[in-house]
């Protein structure tokens, strides 16, 4: 490339300068040029770095011998690794034993634990209003780079927000404000039996699990 001339400028540019402009390592350029000329060296297929004291071939044979002398069938790599260290005195890494056993199909077969059928589509839609409500709270960022709490009470029948409350704190008192707004809007008052029979869903947040909130929503 040092002798190549750019057709646009009529000037010659070196390899280092061109690779720096394109953000390509010079080693990659030379490797690509060798490949184009059919001179690219073969990549090593073995592991990189320093060679282990026990090569893979010897360790593979030791693993097979350990499995053959074991009275049990289908043992995991941890037991094999432990026996090789204690009985055979091989100072080897557990993950290396796992890799070789996996590559040579020597791992014990296992079945995934069956999961129970889950037909729930994560949607709850009631047949009528005021059967089930949900309440939740989240923090919302403001234009002044601060955060406020937003509590909302939602109707499961049509996903309408029946009550809400915005505040700087996110305690049970603020959550009750959103609940009170929904009760007042739907039933006209906050009497003891105003929302009797309405089910309420919420998570296990501290504001909802507080004794005061539980007592108020049960009343």
Automatic annotation (TrEMBL):
Q: Report the residue ranges that make up the Integrase catalytic domain in this protein.
A: 125-219
InterPro entries on file: HTH-like_dom, Integrase_cat-core, Transposase_IS3/IS150/IS904
Biological process, per Gene Ontology:
DNA integration
PANTHER family referenced in this protein's UniProt entry, alphabetically: TRANSPOSASE INSF FOR INSERTION SEQUENCE IS3B-RELATED, TRANSPOSASE INSO FOR INSERTION SEQUENCE ELEMENT IS911B-RELATED
What is the name listed in the Swiss-Prot or TrEMBL entry for this protein? IS3 family transposase
State the organism named in the record. Answer: Elioraea tepida
């Amino acid at each position: 490339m040092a002798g190549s001339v750019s057709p646009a400028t009529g000037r010659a540019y070196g390899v280092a300068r061109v690779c720096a402009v394109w953000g390509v390592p010079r080693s990659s350029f030379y490797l690509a040029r060798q490949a184009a000329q059919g001179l690219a060296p073969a990549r090593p297929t073995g592991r990189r770095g320093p060679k282990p004291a026990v090569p893979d071939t010897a360790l593979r044979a030791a693993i097979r011998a350990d499995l053959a002398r074991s009275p049990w069938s289908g043992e995991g790599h941890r037991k094999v690794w432990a026996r090789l260290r204690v009985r055979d005195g091989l100072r080897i890494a557990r993950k290396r034993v796992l890799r070789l056993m996996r590559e040579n199909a020597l791992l014990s077969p296992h079945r995934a634990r069956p999961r129970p059928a889950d037909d729930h589509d994560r949607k709850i839609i009631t047949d009528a209003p005021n059967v089930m409500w949900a309440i939740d709270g989240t923090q919302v960022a403001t234009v002044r780079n601060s955060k406020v709490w937003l509590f909302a009470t939602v109707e499961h029948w049509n996903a309408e927000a029946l009550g809400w409350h915005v505040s700087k704190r996110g305690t049970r008192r603020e959550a009750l404000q959103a609940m009170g707004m929904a009760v007042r809007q739907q039933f006209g008052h906050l009497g003891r039996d105003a929302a009797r029979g309405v089910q309420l869903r919420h998570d296990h947040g501290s504001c909802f699990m507080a004794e005061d909130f539980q007592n108020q929503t049960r009343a």
